[in-house]
Amino acid sequence: SKLPKLNELLDVSIKPALEQTLAEEEAEVAAYPDGLPIGGPLDISSEFGIRRNPFGGYSYETHEGTDFVGPYGTAIFATADGVVERADYHGGYGNTVTLKHGYGYETLYAHMSKLAVETGARVKRGDVVGYLGNTGRSSGPHLHYGIYYKGQAVNPRNHMKMNHDMNVVDYWRLR
């Protein structure tokens, strides 16, 4: 019968290849920034794109992220698995964490009151990386959240999904 030989072929060559492909796809999904970096009641104070300079004057600037307003000290979460590339005070961004996720993705969390991770640490989606604050060039307590793909800023709204802390009204308001 050819069945035992086919079964052996499956076990020896095809099954390991399928398992490897599945593991690679799972790693890529885990590296994709998805969801909100902050839980609880929240609002957006500044969108991604061209905006009027919030520090006075009539000039415009490119805003490479989304600003979330919330209570001071609110926990900030990693939106994908990755490695902490930077966790320190970084000029106008204040207390900042940058995560490198692989597959071309990086995320940036800025203006935090306190950092909860150190450079080089591995994080999983949902891990606390810091706490909402008002450090650096900031007009009030908020989180500046940026996503970069292959070095280019992308709109974080395209990566938001409803999470367990949101009600349906907030989800549709933020979409």
From TrEMBL:
It comes from the Bacteria. SUPFAM superfamilies: Duplicated hybrid motif (SSF51261). It holds the Pfam family Peptidase_M23. InterPro entries: Cell_wall_metabolism_enzyme, Dup_hybrid_motif, M23ase_b-sheet_dom. Residues 62-156 form the M23ase beta-sheet core domain. GO terms for molecular function: metalloendopeptidase activity. This is M23 family metallopeptidase.
